[in-house]
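Input (S-adenosyl-L-methionine-dependent methyltransferases superfamily protein):
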Amino acid sequence: MALWFLSAPSSASIIITCHATPSAVRAPPAPPPPPLLSLPPNPKPTPLPSLTCALQCPHFQSCSGCTQEYNLQRPIILNEATDFFKKHGVSDFTFDSCKLWGWRCRAKLAVRGSSTDPLVGLYHQEGTHNVADIPDCKGITELNIEPYDEDQGTGELRYVQMAVTTHNTSLPSAERYKNGKVQVSLVWNSRNEKSPSSEKLNALADAFDSLLRKLQKHVHVGASVADLYAGAGVIGLSLAVTRKCRQSVKCVEINKESKPSFEKTAERLPNSVDSSISWHNADTSIEPLSWLVGSDVVVVDPPRKGLDPSLLNALRTIPAVESKAKSPGSSLLKAKGEKRPWIVRSREALVQIESKTTQEDSQSLPQTLIYISCGWESFKEDCKSLLSSNVWHLNKAHGFNFFPGTQRGMGVGKVPFGYQALSAYGCGGFGS
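Output:
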C-alpha cells in the first residue's frame, strides 16, 4: 500500500468543515469558495503484495535468516542477474524458483537461554550473539520423524548419540572436556540411504538434482571431464554415468574428508560405466594447468570467494599454452620431472577406477567451462575476467533459488563458456 503526502501551494486557503445543531444561530453569508487546487493525477496505488509466494513467517522481523518477505519466487537480485547476462550476450537467462517453503531439513542453530526456557534459532542480527527463538521457521522442514518401534521393527529414529570430542591435546587433560565439542549422531532405521524414510535427511536434494540434469545437457557424450572443487565428486560421477565419458573423469578436492563419500558413491556405479575415474586430494591453485590438460570439459564449483587467481589465469591463457605446445619438441606440461613431494603426491589419485578399455593419454585442452556459482559478486568478477581475455564466450546461464527469502538464495546455474564455451549454473546463492 502506498501512502501519498501532497503539499498544496502556500497561498491556498484552508477549508475547515463544521457541523452545527439546528438551533444554532444563523451564521453570516459564507465567503465564496476558494479556487480549486489543481493537483497532478493520483498515480495508480501500489497493490498490496501477494501472499501467494510470501514467507508468512512470524519470526521475520526478529530473525536474521531471511531478508525477503514477499515474492519469494523472484529473488531481489534476479533483475540484476538478467541484465548482467543480457549485457554479455545471453538474452535467454532462465531461472528455477525451486521449493519456496520447508526447503531446509538440515540446519545449524544457536542454543542460548536456560534449561527451562531455551532459545533455539539464529541471531537477531549478524554480528551479534542475541538469539532469536524460531520454533515456527518457514524455511525448516517438519520431518515428522517416527520413533523406532522395537516390536514391530517400524519407525525411523532408533538412537541419538552425543559424544564430547577431546582431541585437542594442547590443553591440560582437566580442561579438555570443558573445551570439547559435542558430536551428535542419529542412528536411522534403514539399511541404506535410498529407503523412503532416509529421504527426509537429504537437504535440497530435489533442487540439486535439477541442477545436475540441466548441467548434463551441456556435456557431449564421451567427453573427458575435470571436476574442480569437486567435494565428494557428485558432479563428476553423475557425468561419468549420464554422458558415458569414454576417456577420463578427474575429481579434484582439497578437503581429504570427502574421500570416503566419493568411494562409497563410486562403489555403486553401474557396471556399464567404462571410464577412468579418479579422485585427487589436491589444491587446484597449485599447477592448475596439470588438471586442465586432457579434458574436453572443465566443471568448477568454487567457494563463495570464486576461482583461485592461478586457475583463472590458466583458463585465460589457454591459447598461448596451445600455441607453445605446437612448437617442435614442446609439451603442454613441463618436461622436467616435478620434484616437490607434496605436488607429486597430490597428482597421484587417492581413488582410481580403471577403464575396461585401453585409452590413450590425451593432451587436449578444454573447449567448455561450466561454472557453478554460490557467490554472485565473485562470479561476476570471474566471468568478466574470462570474457575480457577473448578466449571464452558466454552462451548459457541458469539460476536456482536454493534458499528462498535469503540473499543467498539464487545461484548462477550453468554458464557454458565457449572458445571455448562457458556456462554458469547457480547453486547456493547470488548473495555473499
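Residues 163 and 183 are 5 Å apart (CA to CA).
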